[in-house]
Amino acid sequence: xxxxxxxxxxxxxxxxxxxVAALTMLVVGFSITAKAQxxxxxxxxxxxSVRSRTLxxxxxxxxxxxxxxxxxxxxxxxxxxxxxxxxxxxxQEAFQIWNTGGTEVHNPNVDPxxxxxxxxxxxxxxxxxxxxxxxxxxxxxxxxxxxxGHLHETLTLSDRGNTQSGSFTLxxxxxxxxxxxxxxxxxxxxxxxxxxxx
Length: 198
Fold this sequence. Notes:
The protein has 198 residues and is α+β, with helices and mostly antiparallel strands.
């Protein structure tokens, strides 16, 4: 177990009294234990942050949007192909829909049998800069409650509104709203998918 994983283990055990085995399932074995809507997305981000695995460049470029329109789009509303990075390592990609009513749907590239649709809410902080907030219930495979995952993003539009970039954090909270630990943090980038693409 790495130094970072051991530090996270001590923090969670101290705050929640979680056993070392439960923490191992959460951080190291996260990719096979937690069950919840969108949990596979959160598991892949946390596990990849710890293991620093990368995806092939081919999978990143398959759905890249083109900036063929001359119009400037100042709204984030629409369909996006996004990527999460920790350092230079891509840990996840997803399709994401930002709706006019301030809601968002996130469809990560993970096994759909474990829940691959996330829901969020957003607002425009300043012109062309947006804040996003996700919530997800996290459980072990045997049904024990682990906590609530909070994914936060801050994004800014560029390239005539056809690209986005910013930062994200993924944190674990208890039911009382107390932060237990940070599971991952990094950057997020994305390209708008236009209706004219094949």
